[in-house]
Design goal:
The chain has helices at 3-20, 49-61, 105-117, and strands spanning 35-38, 66-69, 73-81, 84-91, 100-103, 123-126, 131-138. By secondary structure, the chain is α+β, with helices and mostly antiparallel strands. Strand 6 (123-126) and strand 7 form a beta hairpin. Keywords: Signal.
Length: 141
């Protein structure tokens, strides 16, 4: 066998071996975080953080939980005191979203609290299936 042929066989083998060892993101729940962005400008939750968390619990126990169709997004707005409101968004818009999926109150709440607690001015995160957004603003809804 020629040296060039051996080299091509080795490269092909190594390429296949390395590709086989890469986990499929769908099979690996650790890699389900697709995109996170904390807002850098605008109103902050400040002393209204607890009120925003309560609003998230209310929204997730009611209008934001349930069955979503792919690309469906629901938005609820709540006054949180201090002359501010928070817009809470949940959507089945992630890259791995199926045609239909149900979100329970706890899964909804856990996604939204991350945007409230981890991002002082709110944030927007898309996981494999779900998008969560919490956006504090001045004024009323």
């Amino acid at each position: 066998m020629k040296t060039s042929t051996l080299l091509l066989v080795a490269i092909n083998f190594l390429g296949l071996a390395s590709a086989a060892s890469i986990a499929n993101p769908v099979d690996n729940p650790v890699n389900t975080l697709e995109r996170r962005a904390c807002f850098e400008s605008g109103a902050s939750f400040g002393s209204q953080e607890n009120a925003a968390l309560k609003a998230a619990r209310t929204a997730c126990n009611g209008p934001l939980k349930g069955t979503y169709q792919k690309r469906e997004t629901r938005v609820k707005c709540y006054g949180i005191g201090g002359g501010k409101h928070v817009k809470l968004t949940v959507g089945l818009t992630g890259p791995n979203a199926p045609s239909k999926k149900t979100i329970g109150a706890d899964e909804c709440y856990n996604g939204l609290i991350s945007e409230i607690v981890s991002c002082s001015k709110g944030g927007d995160t898309t996981y494999g299936n779900w998008r969560y957004r919490a956006d504090p603003n001045e004024g009323s809804c």
